[in-house]
Amino acid sequence: MKLTLKIWRQENPTATGAIHTYELDGVSKDMSFLEMLDLLNEQLVTSGEEPVAFDSDCREGICGMCSLMINGEAHGPEVTTTCQLHMRSFNDGDTITIEPWRAEPFPVLKDLVVDRSAFDRIIQAGGYISANTGSAPEANSVPAPRDKAMRAFNVATCIGCGACVAACPNGSASLFMGAKITHLGELPQGQPERWSRVVDMVGQHDHEGFGGCTNIGECASACPKEIPLDVISQLNKDLRTALKNGH
Amino acid sequence: MAVSGLLFIGFVLGHMYGNLKAFAGEESFNEYAHHLRELGTPMLPYEGFLWIMRVGLIAAVIVHIACAVALWSRAAKARPVKYAVKKNRGSSISSRTMRWGGLTLLLFIVWHLLNFTIVKINPSNGDTGGENPYALVVDTFDTWWMTIIYLVAMVALGLHLHHGTFSSLQTLGLTNSATSRARARAAGWVVAIVVAGGFSLVPLSVLVGIIEK
Q1: What is the mean pLDDT of residues A26-32?
Q2: Which of A54, B34, B44, B48 sits most deeply, having the most CB atoms within 10 A of its CB?
Q3: How far is B86 from chain A (nearest CA, A)?
Q4: How high is the pLDDT of residue A139?
């Protein structure tokens, strides 16, 4: 396959970036998207140019590092992470535009690499439970109803990749927050901090500069883990309950 | 945003139902308009009910606009650098046009109030109707371009209600499962079609001559 790649290049966080165009030949349909970028970088290094900086870690779709906006879609055209996207999803002769996540709280560090520490700070604000250290308690001593456990497990698949923010026209992280709040709020272990959690996380979210949710739904469509939109409703319900109870 | 929006939904449903009185003829329609002024008397003064509604709606408009401005400016600050390419995968025309559509509706409401309430502009013969609002309605919609303005506004209203109904239920935390979300989306369709369709019936009927003086 022969491709035309339009890639955002930016020297450092304060530099002005621009889209550069590269021609890449010899791409196999069996390559992953990141292997295709590796091939481009080999070509760039050989010709003495600076390789394109992009994030990746596990390359098996579970870590959430590979954050790329591909042709205007977070993680590209398939419902998966960029590392699990393969070149068979594209055609010979395609032009592919690759950009970093665009959000003020996710500053571009270099080229396609963004800093997602804002998510860590939202988690630190409330996305945890308090548990005593020591030997693990008997697993069945705290019963969890099956439907609640299933819902918690389903939304606990969130890997914090930031695709929801990247896809959201408002730059809101509500799907990410909603996933954490639903995941912890459905389980008995999450109850003690349930009401302070939602208030603190939303407070941190707004403080970081993420936008407000208008329920458009781009986030749920972009999510590689298919977190449904109803977690945002759960977030709103928990927030309403918490504020009513004076948290 | 959600609460003020739900108040508007209640209002437009009532307003639309009232407008359909035009099909009952000149006398019934004018009687209905007069009755709105006497509603609640003698407990309330003449036009008391109307003024309670007006003050409530003005307060809701202020809240609704303030929330919209806050959300719009937060969104602009959250994404200062735009994407070169951005596709829409989960949004609808209605959800993408909430802001500009809302502004369109605001402009329309200003015109609508000038047309029927504050100045009573009659585009065909300048007669303000006086005690005969039915005549003003018929004169207005006998003018083809006025009917078009109103029909375009009803498209904007339908779109706004389609996303707004669902969005308000989601914001209030009432759509916590796939089923309830589907129901809220269906409610959006029903409210949009009933309200925009119901409102459009009167201007269309005047234009084609079903309703006349």
Answers
A1: 97
A2: A54
A3: 4
A4: 80
A 75-114 near B (Cβ less than 8 A): 97, 99, 102-105
Encode pLDDT of A3-13 as tens digits.
999 999 999 99
Contacts of B74 in chain A (CB under 8 A): 170, 211-212
State pTM to two decimals.
0.94
Domain contains A70: yes
Q: Is the dihedral of CA A217, A221, A223, A227 positive or negative?
A: positive
Q: What is the pLDDT of residue A101?
A: 98
* CATH assignment at residue A27: 3.10.20.30
The number of C-beta contacts closer than 8 angstroms across A and B is 122
Residues spanned by the domain of A9 = 3-110
Q: What whole-number distance in Å separates Cα of residue A95 and Cα of residue A156? A: 35
CA distance linking residue A128 with residue A131, whole number of Å: 10
Write down the pLDDT at residue B128.
75
Examine the domain organization and report whether A105 and A121 are in the same domain.
no
Q: In whole angstroms, what is the distance from residue B147 CA to residue B134 CA?
A: 15
pLDDT of residue A137: 82
Q: Are A69 and A125 found together in one domain?
A: no
Nearest CB neighbour to A236, from listed B88, B95, B170 = B170
A121 and A238 part of one domain: yes
Is A28 within the bounds of a domain? yes
Cis bond before residue A143 (omega within 30° of 0): no
Question: Which of A104, A215, A222 lies nearest to residue B79, judging by beta carbons?
Answer: A104
Residue-wise pLDDT for A136-182, tens only, equals 888 888 899 999 999 999 999 999 999 999 999 999 999 999 999 99
A179 and A219 Cβ atoms separated by less than 8 Å: no
CA angle A56, A58, A63 (to 5 degrees): 85
Asked if residue A73 lies in contact with residue A96, where contact means CB atoms within 8 angstroms, the answer is no
A95 shares its domain with A121: no
Residues A77 and A151 grouped into a single domain: no
Dihedral, A32, A35, A37, A39 alpha carbons, nearest 10: -140
- Write down the number of H helices and E strands in chain A: 8, 7
- Pair B78, A171: CB distance under 8 Å: yes
Instruction: Give the other-Cβ count within 10 Å of A14's Cβ.
Output: 8
Looking at the structure, tell me whether residues A92 and A44 fall in a common domain.
yes
Partners of A98 in beta bridges: A7, A70
Q: What is the pLDDT of residue B177?
A: 94
ipTM given for this complex: 0.92
Measuring CA to CA, which residue among B137, B141, B132, B143 is closest to residue B116?
B137
- CATH number (domain holding residue A190): 1.10.1060.10
